[in-house]
Amino acid sequence: MSLIDLVQEKIVKIPLVSTDKADVLRELVQILKDAGEIEDYDAVLRAICEREEKLSTGLESGIAVPHGKTEAVSTLKLALGIAPQGIDFASIDRKPSQLFFMLVAPPNQSGPHVEALAEIVKLVQSKAFCRAVTAAKDAHEVVELIKGE
After folding, report:
1. Using CB atoms within 10 A of its CB, is residue 25 exposed (0-12), middle (13-18) or buried (19+)?
2. How far is it, in rounded angstroms, from Cα 102 to Cα 6?
3. Catalytic residue at 67?
4. Which residues of the chain have a pLDDT value below 70?
5. The CATH number of 3-144 is which of 3.30.70.980, 3.30.460.80, 3.40.640.10, 3.40.930.10?
6. Peptide bond preceding 112: is omega within 30 degrees of 0, i.e. cis?
7. In the prediction, which pLDDT does 1 show?
8. For 58-75, how does the pLDDT look when each residue is reduced to its tens digit (9 = 90+)?
9. Of 69, 84, 71, which Cα lies nearest the Cα of 116?
10. What is the pLDDT of residues 137-146, one digit of tens each?
11. Which of 39, 55, 59, 139 is 20 to 30 A from 93 in CA distance terms?
Protein backbone atom coordinates (compact mmCIF):
# COMPACT_ATOMS: atom_id res chain seq x y z
CA MET A 1 0.00 0.00 0.00
CA SER A 2 1.45 3.34 -1.01
CA LEU A 3 1.34 6.56 0.95
CA ILE A 4 -1.14 8.03 -1.53
CA ASP A 5 -3.54 5.18 -0.74
CA LEU A 6 -3.46 6.13 2.95
CA VAL A 7 -4.20 9.83 2.41
CA GLN A 8 -7.84 10.66 3.07
CA GLU A 9 -9.52 13.79 4.38
CA LYS A 10 -10.45 12.08 7.65
CA ILE A 11 -6.79 11.68 8.66
CA VAL A 12 -5.75 15.25 7.78
CA LYS A 13 -6.05 18.13 10.25
CA ILE A 14 -5.42 21.73 9.34
CA PRO A 15 -4.57 23.62 11.38
CA LEU A 16 -3.30 21.68 14.35
CA VAL A 17 -4.28 23.36 17.62
CA SER A 18 -1.24 22.10 19.53
CA THR A 19 1.54 24.45 20.52
CA ASP A 20 4.20 22.00 21.73
CA LYS A 21 5.69 18.65 20.77
CA ALA A 22 3.88 16.50 23.33
CA ASP A 23 0.50 17.96 22.38
CA VAL A 24 1.22 17.48 18.66
CA LEU A 25 1.82 13.77 19.25
CA ARG A 26 -1.42 13.45 21.25
CA GLU A 27 -3.37 15.40 18.64
CA LEU A 28 -2.06 13.29 15.75
CA VAL A 29 -2.97 10.05 17.55
CA GLN A 30 -6.42 11.51 18.31
CA ILE A 31 -6.89 12.17 14.58
CA LEU A 32 -6.48 8.42 13.96
CA LYS A 33 -8.82 7.57 16.83
CA ASP A 34 -11.49 10.01 15.60
CA ALA A 35 -11.16 8.67 12.05
CA GLY A 36 -11.82 5.12 13.27
CA GLU A 37 -8.32 4.01 12.20
CA ILE A 38 -7.23 2.89 15.69
CA GLU A 39 -8.93 1.68 18.84
CA ASP A 40 -6.16 1.76 21.44
CA TYR A 41 -5.18 5.42 21.72
CA ASP A 42 -2.83 4.81 24.67
CA ALA A 43 -0.85 2.01 22.99
CA VAL A 44 -0.37 4.04 19.81
CA LEU A 45 0.65 7.17 21.71
CA ARG A 46 3.09 5.13 23.81
CA ALA A 47 4.72 3.65 20.68
CA ILE A 48 5.10 7.08 19.06
CA CYS A 49 6.47 8.67 22.25
CA GLU A 50 8.93 5.82 22.88
CA ARG A 51 10.36 6.24 19.38
CA GLU A 52 10.48 10.01 19.75
CA GLU A 53 12.41 9.72 23.05
CA LYS A 54 15.22 7.86 21.24
CA LEU A 55 15.74 10.62 18.66
CA SER A 56 13.54 13.43 17.45
CA THR A 57 11.81 12.79 14.15
CA GLY A 58 11.84 16.51 13.38
CA LEU A 59 13.66 16.71 10.07
CA GLU A 60 14.64 19.86 8.20
CA SER A 61 12.64 22.52 6.39
CA GLY A 62 9.57 22.33 8.61
CA ILE A 63 8.97 18.59 8.26
CA ALA A 64 8.44 16.08 11.08
CA VAL A 65 7.73 12.38 10.69
CA PRO A 66 6.86 10.94 14.09
CA HIS A 67 6.46 7.19 13.79
CA GLY A 68 6.29 4.03 15.80
CA LYS A 69 5.40 0.36 15.81
CA THR A 70 2.76 -1.30 17.93
CA GLU A 71 0.60 -4.42 18.05
CA ALA A 72 -2.36 -2.01 18.37
CA VAL A 73 -2.51 -1.72 14.56
CA SER A 74 -2.69 -4.48 11.97
CA THR A 75 -1.76 -2.32 8.98
CA LEU A 76 0.13 0.91 8.38
CA LYS A 77 -1.73 4.04 9.53
CA LEU A 78 -1.08 7.68 8.65
CA ALA A 79 -2.16 10.95 10.24
CA LEU A 80 -1.22 14.27 8.69
CA GLY A 81 -1.26 17.53 10.58
CA ILE A 82 -0.38 21.01 9.46
CA ALA A 83 0.67 23.82 11.77
CA PRO A 84 1.22 26.92 9.60
CA GLN A 85 2.53 28.81 12.64
CA GLY A 86 5.22 26.18 13.23
CA ILE A 87 5.89 24.18 16.39
CA ASP A 88 9.22 23.47 18.08
CA PHE A 89 9.76 19.76 17.42
CA ALA A 90 13.50 19.53 18.21
CA SER A 91 14.24 19.41 14.49
CA ILE A 92 17.65 18.79 13.01
CA ASP A 93 17.84 22.37 11.71
CA ARG A 94 16.33 23.74 14.95
CA LYS A 95 13.54 25.42 13.00
CA PRO A 96 9.85 24.95 13.81
CA SER A 97 8.00 22.11 12.09
CA GLN A 98 4.86 22.80 10.09
CA LEU A 99 4.09 19.51 8.31
CA PHE A 100 3.61 16.42 10.46
CA PHE A 101 3.34 12.98 8.87
CA MET A 102 2.71 10.45 11.64
CA LEU A 103 3.07 6.76 10.76
CA VAL A 104 2.08 3.80 12.92
CA ALA A 105 2.84 0.25 11.83
CA PRO A 106 2.63 -3.24 13.26
CA PRO A 107 6.01 -4.56 14.47
CA ASN A 108 6.07 -7.43 11.96
CA GLN A 109 5.65 -5.24 8.86
CA SER A 110 8.75 -3.19 8.11
CA GLY A 111 8.27 -2.93 4.36
CA PRO A 112 5.22 -0.63 4.18
CA HIS A 113 6.58 1.54 7.00
CA VAL A 114 9.93 2.07 5.27
CA GLU A 115 8.27 2.60 1.87
CA ALA A 116 5.95 5.26 3.33
CA LEU A 117 8.88 7.04 4.98
CA ALA A 118 10.70 7.05 1.64
CA GLU A 119 7.62 8.41 -0.15
CA ILE A 120 7.28 11.20 2.41
CA VAL A 121 10.94 12.16 2.01
CA LYS A 122 10.49 12.24 -1.76
CA LEU A 123 7.35 14.40 -1.52
CA VAL A 124 8.81 16.96 0.85
CA GLN A 125 11.95 17.50 -1.21
CA SER A 126 9.85 19.89 -3.28
CA LYS A 127 9.84 23.26 -1.50
CA ALA A 128 6.93 24.37 -3.69
CA PHE A 129 4.91 21.33 -2.60
CA CYS A 130 5.66 22.02 1.08
CA ARG A 131 4.65 25.68 0.72
CA ALA A 132 1.41 24.69 -1.03
CA VAL A 133 0.47 22.12 1.62
CA THR A 134 1.32 24.50 4.46
CA ALA A 135 -0.88 27.18 2.84
CA ALA A 136 -3.78 24.79 2.16
CA LYS A 137 -7.12 25.94 3.51
CA ASP A 138 -8.62 22.54 4.36
CA ALA A 139 -8.11 18.76 4.36
CA HIS A 140 -9.64 18.39 0.88
CA GLU A 141 -7.02 20.71 -0.59
CA VAL A 142 -4.21 18.84 1.17
CA VAL A 143 -5.43 15.49 -0.18
CA GLU A 144 -5.64 16.91 -3.70
CA LEU A 145 -2.10 18.28 -3.46
CA ILE A 146 -0.66 14.98 -2.23
CA LYS A 147 -2.53 12.80 -4.71
CA GLY A 148 -1.67 15.15 -7.57
CA GLU A 149 2.01 15.43 -6.71
Report:
1. buried
2. 12
3. yes
4. 1, 149
5. 3.40.930.10
6. no
7. 56
8. 999 899 999 999 999 999
9. 69
10. 999 999 999 8
11. 139
Q: How far apart are CA 107 and CA 92, in angstroms?
A: 26
Q: Where are the domains of the chain?
A: 3-144
6 vs 60: CA distance, rounded Å: 23
pTM for this one? 0.93
First-to-last CA distance in the chain? Answer: 17
DSSP strand pairing (63-64 vs 77-87): unpaired
- Cis peptide bond N-terminal to 84, omega within 30: no
67, 69, 77, 113: the catalytic one is 67
